[in-house]
Design brief:
four-stranded mixed beta sheet, four-stranded antiparallel beta sheet, 8 strands, alpha+beta, single chain, 148 residues
């Protein structure tokens, strides 16, 4: 089961976990929840995306992870629009027969999502907005998984 959802609505962790935990053959579920950071006085983080293309990119990542680790479920839920520090921005989950596969698949999904999904970030600090550039550390994390 693959579930990909992109929305401005807050992420309901209980609802998302319920779907993942019901996956056939699940003996382990690994999750990652990303929060908007308040680094250096960030007041608002706004994410824009290209509807259709974003969901397709996230679905491809989930399909790759499902095939690579024989997952029973892979879920990626990502928010768009304006968000305040402390709000949930992303939820990733992987259900597998064993913990090792679930943990690796979850790490793979978040590492690859950061570089492969078409999102654009804009931060507002002290009333001034600026676009956020991609980080080298994100590219390094994605590269550890090898060629796609």
């Amino acid at each position: 089961m693959i579930r990909v959802h992109v929305s401005p609505a807050p992420i309901d962790l209980a609802a998302e976990m319920d779907g993942v935990e019901r996956a056939d053959g699940a003996g382990a579920v690994a999750t990652f929840t990303g929060l908007v950071r308040s680094d250096d006085g960030v007041g608002t983080l706004e994410l824009e995306h290209y509807p259709g293309a974003t969901e397709a990119a996230l679905t491809r990542l989930a399909e790759e992870a499902t095939a690579r680790w024989a997952l029973g479920a892979a879920t990626i839920v990502h928010r768009v629009g304006p968000m305040a520090p402390g709000e949930r921005i992303v939820f990733v989950a992987a259900a597998a027969p064993h913990r090792g596969a679930a943990l690796e698949a979850c790490a793979y999904l978040i590492d690859r999502l950061k570089t492969d999904a078409p999102f654009w970030k804009r931060e507002t600090r002290g009333g001034e907005a600026r676009w956020v550039e991609a980080r080298d550390s994100d590219a390094d994390a994605a590269a550890r998984w090898g060629k796609r």
